[in-house]
Amino acid sequence: MGGFEAKRCRVTVDSLTVEVEGVTVLRDVGFEVDGGLTAFIGPNGAGKTTLLRVLAGILGHRGVVRVCGLDVRSARRISSYVPSFLQVDPYARVEDVIVAYLQGVSNPRSPEDVLESFGLARLRGRRFNSLSGGEHKLVLIAGALARNPSILLLDEPFSHLDLANQAKLARLLKAVSENLTVIAAVHEPFFASLADRVGILNSGRLIAFGSPGEVLRKNVLEEVYGVELEEVSLGSKTLVLPSL
Length: 244
Prior knowledge:
CATH class: Alpha Beta
Strand order of the largest sheet: 6-7-8-3-9-10
Helix content: 25-40%
Oligomer: single chain
CATH superfamily: P-loop containing nucleotide triphosphate hydrolases
Radius of gyration: 18 Å
CATH topology: Rossmann fold
Number of domains: 1
């Protein structure tokens, strides 16, 4: 995958609180990043998707949220958001999804060129809803990066991908995060360990934020997930896995 140019930007979140249908989903969340790859983990329902939707300018909120010095709605033109799944018109083709991502972009690339440069030319002409879950995710990420955003927001980017595509995407995210800000919601501590910074959300609160070595601790994750874990050494990394 390749063929994009972008620049990183600072994201500042302070006292962020979000209520959805009378339920407080995020409470008093605060952090700051300036480029690089940031991963948020936590149990289902912890608020990870809600946080991404706020940063994408989709959800209302209380508190301060600034993206590249702009409020989140103004920043939508320089951001790209990839949801965990996107249901589209049943007749929409892959190229239509790419075109939708490129709306509002000056001098947009052709969808054929985007697919070719991201190694997805084989999907040309296919109906989007006929793709596998992994192909679906790769097309969305290709479209998002083709916008040349300053901030890339990814919800469960590794879900549905086979091992080869997980490795390819991990290398891609490490590479692009040198030039833009990438914030992702992930489930596996292993993928979080690849990030520059990690935040743990639990019951709508940000309970830890820092480097993977500081945050991905056995005792912290056992308390958050309520399961017994064990530490496994892999090269220079120490991974935390369920104890079976």
